[in-house]
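pasting input
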Amino acid sequence: MRRRHEPHITDEGTPASGAIRPHRRTFLTQGALLAGATVGGLVSQTSGSRAAEFPPEWRRRPGRSFVAYGTPSPFEAKVGRLLPVRPAGHPTPGAGASFTPLEQLHGIITPNGLHYERSHSGVPDIDPARHELIVHGLVRRPLVFTVDALLRYPTVSRVYFLECTGNSLAGFPATSPAGPLGRMHGLISCAEWTGVPLATLLDEAGVDPRARWMLAEGIDGSGMSRSLPLDKAMDDVLVALYQNGERLRPEQGYPVRLFVPGFEGNLSVKWLHRIKVTEGPTYTKDETSKYTDLLPDGRALQFTLRMDVKSTITRPATGLTMQGPGLYEVSGLAWSGTGRIRRVEVSADGGKSWADATLQEPVLPRALTRFRLPWKWPGGPAILASRATDERGEVQPTREQLVAARGLRSVNHYNAISICHVGGDGQVTSAWA
Amino acid sequence: MVLAVLAISRPLNAQRPSTLEGPGLGRPATPSEIAAVDLSIPPDGTGLPAGQGTAREGAALFGRLCASCHGPKGVGGPNDRLAGGEGSLTSSQPIKTIGSYWQWATTLFDYTRRAMPYGAPMSLKDSEVYALTAYMLHLNGIVGEDEVLDATTLPKVKMPNRDNFINAYPDRPRERSR
């Protein structure tokens, strides 16, 4: 267990030896001088050829036949969501979350089977033929929609991240070892969501001019409900039916969910059953006693609906071992509930100096953005970090800054810069600060 | 087939899907349909059902239905602590319970009725929900043992932490980061 010490990320401006060079163009030119050296993977390259065993057995026989729904190679069986660790016989096994293994994935799209989960009463088994969505309250015409009806409505498709309000919450106290990256930051995923604009359904019902908010409620065992401002509802909120091209997974709300881009994951109510248009918020359990952010003076922020600018390095991360000094690709993810990521900076010297990473195009608003930067590891200990800036100029704070403002017990909306220790022996450990 | 038309009343921007007109397949919801599903109770108590209960009546129910998760008297169980923690919010170990943190008593009724007990949600009668709500408030010293809670009296219960929430929509107070 790492002993507590001064945080590694500071705002000092002087570059140190071993720093990622601030002029990326210069560095890449130097990188080109290493022509012939490939960007190294983070697992060992076996020396010696396989010529002696050619042809392997899979070359000498036909492969298997077709399957209706494909699954990954058995050699990837270790890749899975990280499940909650609970004592046996826990009375509420379905209430909680499972984490996306961010360090095992690449690109920006989270495969459906690895999308993080959060539920308050487990995953219901809903028959779509018996499910309906009711829209009522301050509307001229309260309406009921069957799933078959919704599937006939015009749709839009958007790539959006979904992040749990409490993602990275262990970073606030930071008293225990950080563990795998997925457990630290894995309550975030990104998919292409296809659905009906909520505005289309609200227009059909006819919203009363007095209305300023709405309530969304699910039909799982917890009947989870949250209030949402109507200006957001009419803007870009979707009644989603598809997730990465196929119908929603049960864990992500089958047969229909709300999707609220850039806002707290909790607001994207799954197993959506009811929308009530109202004058003000309803003040449900999950926007009063939960999902409010305690401050050092004992008061709490409420309706902190937007997810903040944030990033994390996903490669290297805990569990991977660097194989000797050389050229590596530092890569990770950045996002902001406000819109697009404008910039991601990476440091290799604990925040003393920073260089701009390349952002994978297209950079999409309220979606994950993949960043990359080649890094020549000279050997020896190093501290990697990433710092994101979004299109509004909001910058990820250091943990020190965040805790100074919100205290250690705020739980929600943790978006501080986190780090990655590379030991002299090549051992990698993701950490909070 | 209805062609998609753009709504005239809302301006477009690059990030917003254009408001598409749908095929109008919603069927009218009847008042009784709505009444059957509208479980939400806002702070003014609109929608609270008929029925009543006291903490004394709720005690036995709590022991039978709630204590295994929340602990006898709402403390010491494997799930959320329900009682105590007053004055702890500024300490290094804040304890958020109904008494120390919850904003509205009506929310307690709303949540208990829709979600509890965990293993059998929506199984409580409305009077049982009033009685359990009264008992949980009583555990926190907020109502007396024989105080009757109903649709009229419940919204009048003032929670100790009610005024300690800061609205952060649409703009968060600028007290953090750069």
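fyi Chain A touches chain B through 83 residues (CB under 8 Å).
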